[in-house]
Amino acid sequence: MNPNPSTAASVPTLDVRNLVIEATVGDVRIRLVDDISFQIEAGGTLAIVGESGCGKSMTALSLMRILPEPAVRIGSGQITLEGEDLAGASESRMCEVRNRIISMIFQDPMASLNPVHTVGQQIVEAIRSHRDVPARQARAEAIELLRSVHLPDPEKRIDYYPHRLSGGMCQRIMIAMALASRPRVLIADEPTTALDTTVQAQVMALLKTAQRDTGTAVVLITHN
Ligand SMILES: Nc1ncnc2c1ncn2[C@@H]1O[C@H](COP(=O)(O)OP(=O)(O)OP(=O)(O)O)[C@@H](O)[C@H]1O
Ligand SMILES: [Mg+2]
User: Fold this and answer.
1) What are the phi and psi torsion angles at 47 (to 5°)?
2) What DSSP letter does each residue of 139-192 carry, written as one string?
3) Is pLDDT of 47 > 70?
4) What domains can be seen in the chain, in order of their start residue?
5) Residues lining ligand 1, judged by CB closer than 6 Å?
6) What is residue 9's predicted lDDT score, i.e. its pLDDT?
């Protein structure tokens, strides 16, 4: 028992303060993101809304420390995950964080699935990087995840390579993969843009359920 629950509750899952993201173009340094701050609690949702080019994706990439450095980098500010400083964390620690704590649904699903591995291999790896489950069980869970994101014929498509699937299907697979590791923070960068409106609604409902079941904090990026 925590004798003082208000203390525990006062540490947000993710706390971003005065974040500045800079790009260097030639000799000129420009601010792509100029001093943003936000906090998100376990199980909470934060929407980052803004017009195209305003720096939403760069903000998302900075949280996982995967900005296209050195052209784009964090200029200043703090990123704190459950009390731990991420802006200054080592690369090896960030690898753990990316595998187990924060996961991201990228805006471009085709570019973020590995073309040389089947869908199943990628989801199974995501499951097993987080939990010690036998391969056979991980595969069964992967099929269930694919079913939950409404991928038609998941038993068959789990053995496909990404190039055989449409953009919308790849998007759903990305979502399944992001949920597979049961992250504490899920960053979803316009996760439903490639999908038709019915599936968009289904996917948002799915994210909500996953969030309720696991207490995942969701950072949702959207332009509308
Ligand atoms: N390598 C780079 N060097 C310099 N500027 C860059 C680089 N990559 C992106 N930018 C600029 O950073 C700005 C923010 O880009 P970002 O992708 O974060 O926008 P966004 O808000 O996600 O837009 P969208 O809604 O279209 O996805 C843009 O103006 C873009 O031109
Ligand atoms: Mg973007």
Assistant:
1) -100, 130
2) HHHHHHHHHHTT-SSHHHHTTS-GGGS-HHHHHHHHHHHHHHT--SEEEEESTT
3) yes
4) 5-213+217-221 (3.40.50.300)
5) 23, 25, 32, 50, 52-58, 68, 71-72, 107, 223
6) 52
